[in-house]
C-alpha cells in the first residue's frame, strides 16, 4: 500500500520547488506582472512547507509549528494574491484595491494567531492514526474560524474580480481569466472539502500550488494562439496583396481574398492556382530562398504592374516545408512615379522636353546612331520680351505653345526636340530630314493669334552640323545659337548656319577681346569726332565715335568690335576710355573752342557694370571741365529693364548739369508715351531708321510729328544721318534745331576736326 505521508511529502516538495523556480524566474522577467507573480509564487511556499512539517511531525510541538507556518503563510499568500490580482487584471483608477484595509485585517489575523500559544483560542492539535503512526490533526476554535473568514472573504473578492473580467473581456482574452478563475474555485472547494471532512493531510495544497504555476504561465507566457491565428488569417485575407501558401509540391493550400480576385478562382479551385498563376505571370521560380520579380501585364490599352515575391520556408530539419507567394499590384505607384518623371522631364507649358532631358535624349540618340549625320538647331523668338511687354505674358505663352506645336508637327520619330530656355527651343535631327525651304516658309508666316490679337512673330534658327567627334551637346547648341547672332537684326533671313566664317568670327572676337586693354593703353582705340551743326550750319559740337586703328588689320569701324564688347560686357572698359578721351579733349579746348560740346555714348550694359553717374562726375572733376560741355547719349533700350531706376539716374545727370540726349529715337520700341516722362534734353532722330521703312511721305510725316511733339515737350531735337541738302532744308523747315551727318562731315580724327571747326565750318 502507498505510504501517503511519503507520497505527499514528495509531491509537496516537488510543488514547492517548482514554485521556487517560478518565483525566481518571474522576478527576473521584464513583464509588468513579473514581480507580482514572483511574490505570489514565493508566498505559496510557506503554507506548503507548513503542511510538509505537519505531515512529517512526530511531536505535537513540531506539528503546531507546521500549523503556524501554514496559517501565517496563508495570510501572506492572500496578500500576494490581492497584489497579483490587481496586476493581472490591471485594476487601476476608480477601482483601486483597498490594500490598506486588507493589510490591517491580515495583521489583526496574524496577531491573534500568534496569541494562540498563550490564549489557546485559535486551535489545538490531536494525534490521529494514519497508516499506523500519529498524524496531528487540527482542532479549530474561534480564532481559527476568524482566520478562515478573513482568508475566504479576500479570496472570494478576488474571484469576483476574475469573474467580472471573464465576462467583460473580449473573447480572445477571456480564457486567460477563466483559467485562473476555475483554478481558484476548484482549489477553494477542495480546501473547503478538506476543512469540513477533516481528512488528514491537506491535499488541497496541491491545488494551491497548481494555481501558482498557472498564474506564472498565464501571466508571463500565455498568448491566445488559436485566436491569434484566426486574427492573423483574417488580416491576411483582407490584405491588398494577393497571398498564396503552397506545400512543398507547390500545390496551393491557402489563398486570400485578393488572391482569389486576381486569379478569378474560387476557394474550391485551389489545385488550379499554380497553373493559373503561370498563365498570367509566366514561370514562377521555386528557389530555396527568396525570389522576386516585377511583371507588366497589358490588358487592352492599360498596363498593370506587379511585384511578385516567393519565400520558401524550411522545417526544423531544414527540409522544404512550403512557400509563401505575395503578388503586389504596384500600378498606382508606378503610374505616380511615371507621372512624376514626366513632369520633371517635360516643360509644363509646352509639353516638350526640358533642357536637361532634351540633352540626355540627344546623348542617347548619338550613342544609338553613330553613323547618322545630325543637325543641332537652335530656335529663338526675336524680341520675345517686347512681345510679353506690349501684349501680355498670356499672349507670350500662347506664342510659345504655338511655336512648340509648330515644331512638333515638323518632326519625325528620328528627331529629338525640347525647350532649352524661356523663348528658345532646340531640335536635333538627321541632316537629310532638314528641309530648309519648308522651314523658312513656315517661319515667314508665323502668326500668333489670341482672341482678337494677331501678331507676326519673328523666329530665328541657328543650325550647327555635327562633326564626327562632337559629343558636347551644350556646345553644339551654343554654336547653333551663335549662328543666329549673324542674322539677329535681319528681318528677312530666318535660318543661319554655323560655318567656317562664323568660327573665324568667334576666334576673332576672342582675339580682340584679349587685346582690348592693350588697344586702350596704346591709343589704338581712339575717338573720331563727327561735327554737329545748328540750323545755320555752324559747328556747335561733336559726337565722339570709337575707332580702332589696328596694327595688323588697320582701320576698324565700331561695327566690327562694339557688338562683341557689348555682348561680353567689355564695352564698359571701352566707354570709360572714350569718356576720358572726350574729357581730355574738352580740357584742351577750354581756350580754343570754349563753346563746343562733345557727346559720348553710353551703352545700356554700362549701367549693369558700373556706376555711370559717379564715374563721369569724377572724370569731369578730374579734368576741370563743365558738365554742360559733355553730353550724355543713351538709347531707349536702357528703359527695357528697371525703367524707374534709370529715370532716376538720368534725372541725376541733369541735376549735375549734364545734357542728356536720347539716341537713335525711332529704332526700337519707342514709346512716345514714355518720352513725356523721360528726363532728357535732346532727342536724336536717326534718319536711317526712318528711310529704311517704306515710303518717303510716311517717314516725313513721322519726323514732322516727332519734331512737333518735342517742341511741345520743350525738348531739343537733333537729326542724325543727314546726307543731303534736301534733307537738311526740309528738316530745318520742320523746326529741327541740330544736325549731324555726312552732309556736313564724316567722323574724323581729332586734329582734323579741330581744323574743320577752326574754319568756321559752314558747309
Ligand atoms: P550712333 O551712336 O548712332 O552713331 C552714329 C553713327 O552713324 C556713326 O556710325 C556715324 O558714323 C554714322 N553716321 C553719321 N552720319 C551719317 C550719315 O549721314 N549717314 C550714315 N549712313 N551714317 C552716318 P559709327 O561711328 O560706325 O558708330 C556706329 C555705332 O556704334 C554708333 O551709333 C554707336 O551706337 C556705336 N558706337 C560708336 N562709338 C561708340 C562708343 O564709343 N561707345 C559706345 N557705347 N558705342 C559706340
Ligand atoms: Ca550715338
Ligand atoms: Ca545715333
What's the architecture of the largest domain, going by CATH?
A: Alpha-Beta Barrel
The radius of gyration is: 54 Å
Number of domain modules: 4
Strand content: 15-25%
The dominant shape is: elongated
Helix content estimate: 40-55%
CATH fold topology of the largest domain: TIM Barrel
Would you tell me the overall average pLDDT? 89
Low-confidence stretches: none
Could you state the CATH homologous superfamily of the largest domain? EAL domain
N- to C-terminal separation?
Answer: 159 Å
DSSP summary, beta strand count: 23
Spatial strand sequence of the major β-sheet:
15-16-18-19-20-21-22-23
Q: Give the CATH level 1 class of the largest domain.
A: Alpha Beta
| Sheet with most strands | 8 strands, mixed, barrel
The DSSP helix count reads 29
Small ligands present: ligand C2E, calcium ion
User: What kind of assembly state do the chains in view correspond to?
Assistant: single chain
Amino acid at each position: 500500500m502507498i505510504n501517503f505521508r511519503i507520497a505527499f511529502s514528495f509531491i509537496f516538495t516537488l510543488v514547492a520547488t517548482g514554485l521556487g523556480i517560478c518565483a525566481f524566474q518571474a522576478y527576473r522577467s521584464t513583464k509588468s506582472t513579473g514581480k507580482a507573480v514572483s511574490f505570489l509564487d514565493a508566498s505559496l511556499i510557506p503554507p506548503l512547507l507548513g503542511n510538509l512539517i505537519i505531515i512529517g511531525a512526530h511531536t505535537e510541538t513540531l506539528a503546531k509549528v507546521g500549523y503556524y507556518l501554514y496559517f501565517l503563510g496563508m495570510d501572506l499568500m492572500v496578500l500576494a494574491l490581492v497584489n497579483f490580482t490587481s496586476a493581472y487584471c490591471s485594476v487601476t483608477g476608480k477601482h483601486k484595491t483597498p490594500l490598506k484595509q486588507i493589510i490591517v485585517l491580515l495583521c489583526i489575523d496574524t496577531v491573534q494567531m500568534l496569541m494562540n500559544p498563550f490564549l489557546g483560542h485559535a486551535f489545538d492539535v490531536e494525534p490521529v492514526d494514519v497508516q499506523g503512526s500519529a498524524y496531528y490533526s487540527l482542532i479549530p476554535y474561534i480564532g481559527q474560524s476568524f482566520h478562515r473568514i478573513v482568508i475566504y472573504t479576500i479570496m472570494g473578492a478576488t474571484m469576483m474580480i476574475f469573474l467580472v473580467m471573464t465576462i467583460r473581456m473580449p473573447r480572445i482574452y477571456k480564457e486567460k481569466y477563466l483559467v485562473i478563475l476555475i483554478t481558484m474555485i476548484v482549489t477553494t472547494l477542495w480546501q473547503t472539502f478538506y476543512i469540513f471532512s477533516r481528512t488528514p493531510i491537506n491535499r488541497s495544497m496541491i491545488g494551491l500550488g497548481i494555481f501558482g504555476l498557472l498564474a506564472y504561465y498565464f501571466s508571463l507566457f500565455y498568448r491566445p494562439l488559436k485566436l491569434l491565428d484566426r486574427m492573423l488569417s483574417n488580416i491576411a485575407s483582407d490584405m491588398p496583396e494577393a497571398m498564396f501558401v503552397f506545400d512543398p509540391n507547390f500545390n496551393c493550400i491557402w489563398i486570400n481574398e485578393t488572391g482569389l480576385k486576381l486569379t478569378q478562382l474560387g476557394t474550391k479551385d485551389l489545385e488550379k492556382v499554380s497553373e493559373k498563376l503561370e498563365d498570367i505571370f509566366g514561370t514562377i521560380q521555386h528557389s530555396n530562398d527568396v525570389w522576386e520579380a516585377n511583371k507588366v501585364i497589358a490588358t487592352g490599352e492599360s498596363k498593370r504592374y506587379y511585384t511578385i515575391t516567393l519565400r520558401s520556408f524550411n522545417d526544423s530539419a531544414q527540409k522544404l516545408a512550403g512557400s509563401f507567394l505575395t503578388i503586389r499590384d504596384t500600378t498606382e505607384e508606378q503610374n505616380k512615379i511615371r507621372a512624376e518623371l514626366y513632369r520633371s522631364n517635360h516643360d509644363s507649358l509646352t509639353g516638350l522636353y526640358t533642357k536637361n532631358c532634351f540633352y540626355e535624349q540627344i546623348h542617347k540618340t548619338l550613342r544609338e546612331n553613330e553613323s547618322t549625320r545630325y543637325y543641332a538647331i537652335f530656335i529663338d523668338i526675336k524680341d520675345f520680351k517686347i512681345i510679353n511687354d506690349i501684349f501680355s505674358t498670356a499672349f507670350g505663352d500662347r506664342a510659345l505653345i504655338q511655336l512648340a506645336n509648330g515644331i512638333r508637327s515638323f518632326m519625325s520619330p528620328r528627331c529629338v526636340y525640347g525647350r532649352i530656355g524661356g523663348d528658345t527651343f532646340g531640335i536635333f535631327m538627321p541632316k537629310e530630314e532638314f528641309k530648309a525651304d519648308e522651314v523658312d516658309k513656315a517661319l515667314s508666316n508665323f502668326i500668333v493669334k489670341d482672341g482678337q490679337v494677331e501678331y507676326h512673330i519673328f523666329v530665328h534658327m541657328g543650325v550647327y552640323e555635327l562633326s564626327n567627334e562632337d559629343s558636347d551637346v551644350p556646345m553644339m547648341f551654343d554654336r547653333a545659337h551663335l549662328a543666329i547672332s549673324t542674322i539677329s537684326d535681319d528681318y528677312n533671313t530666318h535660318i543661319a548656319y554655323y560655318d567656317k566664317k562664323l568660327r573665324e568670327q568667334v576666334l576673332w572676337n576672342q582675339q580682340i577681346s584679349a587685346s582690348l586693354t592693350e588697344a586702350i593703353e596704346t591709343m589704338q582705340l581712339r575717338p573720331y569726332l563727327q561735327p554737329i551743326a545748328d540750323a545755320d550750319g555752324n559747328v556747335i559740337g561733336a559726337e565722339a565715335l570709337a575707332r580702332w586703328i589696328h596694327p595688323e588689320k588697320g582701320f576698324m569701324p565700331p561695327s566690327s568690335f562694339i557688338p562683341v564688347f557689348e555682348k561680353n560686357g567689355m564695352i564698359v572698359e571701352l566707354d570709360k576710355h572714350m569718356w576720358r578721351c572726350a574729357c581730355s579733349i574738352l580740357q584742351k579746348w577750354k581756350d580754343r573752342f570754349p563753346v563746343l560740346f562733345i557727346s559720348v555714348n553710353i551703352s545700356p550694359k554700362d549701367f549693369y557694370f558700373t556706376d555711370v553717374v559717379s564715374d563721369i562726375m569724377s572724370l569731369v572733376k578730374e579734368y576741370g571741365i563743365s558738365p554742360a560741355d559733355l553730353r550724355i547719349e543713351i538709347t531707349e533700350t536702357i528703359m527695357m529693364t528697371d525703367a524707374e531706376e534709370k529715370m532716376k539716374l538720368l534725372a541725376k545727370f541733369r541735376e549735375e548739369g549734364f545734357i542728356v540726349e536720347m539716341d537713335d529715337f525711332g529704332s526700337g520700341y519707342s514709346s512716345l508715351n514714355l518720352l513725356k516722362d523721360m528726363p532728357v534734353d535732346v532727342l536724336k532722330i536717326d534718319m536711317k531708321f526712318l528711310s529704311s521703312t517704306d515710303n518717303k511721305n510716311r517717314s516725313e510725316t513721322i519726323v514732322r510729328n516727332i519734331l512737333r511733339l518735342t517742341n511741345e515737350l520743350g525738348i531739343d531735337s537733333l537729326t542724325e544721318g543727314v546726307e543731303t541738302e534736301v534733307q537738311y532744308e526740309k528738316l530745318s523747315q520742320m523746326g529741327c534745331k541740330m544736325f549731324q551727318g555726312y552732309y556736313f562731315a564724316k567722323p574724323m580724327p581729332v586734329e582734323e576736326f579741330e581744323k574743320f571747326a577752326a574754319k568756321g565750318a559752314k558747309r
